[in-house]
């Protein structure tokens, strides 16, 4: 009789341990299924975590110009006197017109915009005028002009359509850095106005200054 009771006791313990193992396995399987998607073609792992990066501003700003007043703007429209056909250095004229405003900027950009389609702006040699003459020679050789030219737009004269093409070649705007109240150009760099029409006419340039 005692033997039967002992067997029943150990049988009950065994059943309890087995039940606990079954519950544990079922729970583990459910956890794995919650993080893994099963398809007929195989197993697709759970999506990777996305980590959002946060950039922390540098604490050492000694190499950057700063201003407690924030960025500033200034703008002026300059009328340039009529120039003969060719390339002309206009840096002194521009600086004369914007010098006072320019001196208020420690760091920034100067944007120079020409309001015409038959002239252009470029930055080039500021010392030897032969460079200006050679550039005009080059432009006249690569853009045909006269009765033999293939242009359809001729109502404003044979030099008008070539002037439009040359204007697009060099462009009508420049961006120049400002450093400590001055245009930060190279030693031999200057601003050119390239006049592409035969009849001289005044030209307007809008200069916009932005910085601190």
From TrEMBL:
Keywords, sorted A to Z: Membrane, Transmembrane, Transmembrane helix
Gene3D superfamilies xref list: YjbQ-like (2.60.120.460)
Transmembrane segments: 9-28
Listed PANTHER family: SECONDARY THIAMINE-PHOSPHATE SYNTHASE ENZYME (PTHR30615:SF16), UNCHARACTERIZED PROTEIN YJBQ-RELATED (PTHR30615)
Protein's name according to its UniProt entry: Secondary thiamine-phosphate synthase enzyme
Provenance organism: Eruca vesicaria subsp. sativa
């Amino acid at each position: 009789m005692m033997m039967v009771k002992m067997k029943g006791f150990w049988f009950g313990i065994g059943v309890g341990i087995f039940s606990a193992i079954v519950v544990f396995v079922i729970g583990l399987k459910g956890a794995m299924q919650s993080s893994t998607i099963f398809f007929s073609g195989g197993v697709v792992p759970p999506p990777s975590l996305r980590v959002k990066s946060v950039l922390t501003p540098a604490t050492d700003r000694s190499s950057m110009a700063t201003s407690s007043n924030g960025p500033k703007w200034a703008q002026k429209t300059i009328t340039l006197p009529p120039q003969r056909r060719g390339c002309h250095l206009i840096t002194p004229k521009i600086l004369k017109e914007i010098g006072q405003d320019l001196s208020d900027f420690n760091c920034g950009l100067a944007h120079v915009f020409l309001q015409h389609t038959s002239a252009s702006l470029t930055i080039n040699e500021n010392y030897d005028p032969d460079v200006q003459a050679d550039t005009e020679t080059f432009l006249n050789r690569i853009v045909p002009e006269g009765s033999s030219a293939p242009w359809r737009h001729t109502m404003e004269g044979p030099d008008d359509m070539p002037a439009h093409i040359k204007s697009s070649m060099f462009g009508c705007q420049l961006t120049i850095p400002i450093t400590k109240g001055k245009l930060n150009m190279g030693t031999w760099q200057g601003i050119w106005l390239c006049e592409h029409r035969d009849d001289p006419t005044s030209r307007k340039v809008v200069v916009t200054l932005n910085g601190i």
